[in-house]
Amino acid sequence: MSSAVESMEGMLMQNGTLQFSSSTSRLDAMVIRVLDGEIEAYNELMAETEGRVLGLAWKILGNKEQAMDACQEGFLRAYKSLHSYRIGESFVAWVMTITANICRDYLKKRDYGATDPQILESMPATDNENAEEAVLQRQRKGIVQRALATLSASERQAIVLRDMEGLSTEETAKMLGIKSGTVRSQIATARNKIKKFCQSILHRPKGGRP
Question: What is the CA radius of gyration of the chain?
Answer without folding.
Answer: 21
